[in-house]
User: Fold this.
Amino acid sequence: MLIVTTSSRIVLASRPVGAPEPSDFRAEDVPVPPTGEGELLLRTIYLSLDPYVRGRLGDAHAYRSASPLLPLGEVIPGGTVCEVVESRSPGFAAGDIVLADLGWQSFGVRGAAGVRRLDPGAAPVSTALGVLGMPGFTAYVGLNLIGRPNPGETVVVAAATGPVGSMVGQLAQLAGCRAVGIAGGPDKVAWLRENGFAAALDHRSPTFGDELAAAVPDGVDIYFENVGGRVFDAVLPHLNLGARVPVCGMVSEYNGDGPAAGPDRLPGLMSLILSRAITVQGFHFRPYAASHERRFLDETAAAIRAGRVHYREDIVAGLESAPAAFAGLLRGANFGKLLVRVGPDPTQGDS
Assistant:
């Protein structure tokens, strides 16, 4: 059995003002606590980096996470795929691969009730943090339960090559909708076209507004909001009567170091929402997990095996890479689901 005495971790050193800086994070080596009854000692294989974490770090005026602010000195949160090193629970054994919430650290102890065993034979274990994990389920909830797509409708999704947006577009296609994806850069636009989007737009294009208008001649029935800012401004006039706007994120605002702009335009926005009977709803996936997650997992795993859903992962190596990769995520530098490979993946033959 692997003997583990210390763990590397990254904690919040100071609250970012604007974009996170390296000095806002601190690397530490700390003793690993003993494994108690009903607990598991876990080794991190993959760490998920997610935009929502920015809201937990604080000092971003335009955005607050639904979860409380992270205290200074605490481990940065994040979902993880881990290997069980030691088990004091009858339901798990050393060598099991599990989904946990270990955060930005290499080893840690968690109660067995808070982890879920993964089947490496069903799908690559990394997908439990992406297309078969929280991002994929967020897309499923937002589109199917909030957006309520009907065949023939036009669905526009921002950040369309990210783990949520790419899933939204593909689920829209499976529902018989016309999917229009918005992303940043020609490589991302090409990926969208290769994966069946009816139109793929680069929001960095100087003619983005005109290109969007041409791509949605019949208007927009569902706009899945991941970005906010100028992308939202461009889509807004095209929303149809009865349009639905699931609000998943506003990543363009997350690093704001002053109050969010726009109170002076609120009356006009509310007038449009009223006159066109638009439904705008923010949501979180957790309330839907008990009733819908099992169906999501079964349907999505089957769709991946059948080649009807595709995904892309952007994997960086080493826990020490997490702060810079996280800062890049908030700038849109990633292409696909952003993961940190913290340690060897035995399901891929690593040791």
User: Anything to note?
Assistant: Residues 6-124+312-348 form a domain with the Quinone Oxidoreductase; Chain A, domain 1 fold (CATH 3.90.180.10). The longest strand covers residues 39-48.
